[in-house]
Amino acid sequence: MKKQFIVIGLGRFGSSLTKTLIENGHEVLAIDKDLNLVEEMANIATQALQADCTDESVLQELDVRHFNHAVVAIGENLQASILTTLLLKEMGIPKVTAKAKNAVHGKVLTKIGVDQIIYPERDMGVRLGKQLSSDNLIDYIELSPYYNLVEMKAPSAMDGRTLAQLNIPTNYGCTIMAIKNNIDINVSPKAEDTIQAGDILLMIGSNEDIRNMEDKYGKKR
Fold this sequence. Notes:
Strand order of the largest sheet: 3-2-1-4-5-6
Shape: elongated
Helix content: 25-40%
Number of strands: 13
Structural class: alpha/beta
Number of helices: 9
Strand content: 25-35%
Radius of gyration: 22 Å
């Protein structure tokens, strides 16, 4: 379903977000105070405008209430980020997501009722740290503070063994959602399906359960 987004702040994060939303068939009003950044997005976003969104009259003129979702992607100017987010919440946009520079910034955003807070730099650091800490972990997505979705390369110790033989849910508490290889992807694999070394396992599990699997199957020391 096509949605209407407003993205405020067109730095690396905001511009990347805008491009991705457009590629996925949504409408995006992209806004920044910097005319150069606006011009870069002019041929990509549904509409790109130079504006100061800390000015309530500007937001009223843009009639932001008609957007499904607003994303405040302002980077260094914390005051502008907080004020813009507050104004958007007061105007009744159904969902407001805001980028936070640090924990203190995030705490303030929480206080003013933002629906979702993202920490791009921190999250990327955690994600990369997880990848570098394991020989087998390829990708890592945090679903909640306690549960993760990971892509893990099947180690040689799993080669030729079926899911029933490995019994990963019982032994480690993780669930294998899919098995990928060079040819295809096996979604919702059955107990009798065999894993080959080098297959990519898409798994969901708690932080502790995934760590236990990494300890068993090749975590770097």
